[in-house]
Amino acid sequence: MVKVINKSVCRGVAGKRIGNVKGVVIHNTWDNNTAESHIERLGKMSNKQLEDGFAQYYVDGQTIVRVEDTFNKAWHTANTEGNAYYIGIEVRGNRQTSKEEFEKAEQNAFKQAYEDLKYYKLPINRDTVRLHCEFTATECPKRSLIEHCGYDSIHKQPQAVIDKLKDYFIAQIKKCGNTETVKPPVTPKPPAAIKPPAKPKPPVKPQGVKRVAEKGTFYPNTTVAIKHTPTIKAKQEATLGKGESVIYDSYVKSDGYVWVSYIRNNGKRGYACSRDVKTGKAFGTFK
Predict the structure, then answer these.
(1) Which residues form the SH3b domain (predicted)?
(2) CATH of domain 3-174
(3) Chain centroid to CA 165: how far?
(4) Which of these CATH numbers, 3.40.1050.10, 3.90.1300.10, 3.90.1150.10, 2.30.30.40, describes 206-286?
(5) pLDDT for 144-173, tens place per residue?
């Protein structure tokens, strides 16, 4: 029986995901440590130390451990897109790991990958099942490349080798059904970034909003709301936090606020609340 542990010891240090999960990335830890050992290792690290890298999951032949919630980012690919949109799964394995243990760990990783892809309603294909070496120059997942492709080199993997390993992973993940895995949590509703006034003005209808063309980058100094229409009553789609930024192409004055506008990752236009018109207070800086 597989032991499953959920301890978010990385504390959301990489920030919340902005946009939808695009898939999973399979890694090899390239050490021979147990999955549980990473709970204590990562839990002792400072935020700065965690920047050296961590994934959402660590898996061995007996245990699946989630050290970071899947609605948060993780620093697991040394690549902005990989960190922001993909879930990292680290499989126990280096040259010292027995083949039996490594294969058990891989199978548990495939089960977890299946569960997360199903939860986020994603297909199982080459776009959603990725390798670390696709995002940055690395030998990872090296033990998998050795076992399933016979590839053991420090040089960049040929595309044919990458595709062969991905197709193996895809076939194995597709075999998985209901399994003992860590269930992805329901994303908690983030608190509203801006409290509406006691007597809010009637929301402005989208067709009545006039966007003013202006290009720039907005750097929030607090958490601000992202909405599909620039009104207080509109549903909050996401948030933009301190340390993040957005490149906008226009702005709107609406409902007592200035909203910078841009095209979101889902292809739809979004509006980020950036300034209080009455007080002139900005919720960040503009460049």
Answers:
(1) 213-280
(2) 3.40.80.10
(3) 23
(4) 2.30.30.40
(5) 999 999 999 999 999 999 999 999 999 999
Compute the C-alpha angle 203/208/214, nearest 5°.
Answer: 105
Give CA separation, 106 vs 29, 144, 148, 259, in Å: 11, 9, 12, 47
| pTM strictly above 0.85 | no
pLDDT for 164-203, tens place per residue?
999 999 999 999 975 556 666 655 555 555 555 555 555 4
- How is residue 86 annotated by DSSP? E
What gap in Å lies between CA 29 and CA 275, rounded to an integer? 45
Measured CA to CA, the distance from residue 58 to residue 77 in angstroms comes to 15
Domain locations along the chain: 3-174, 206-286
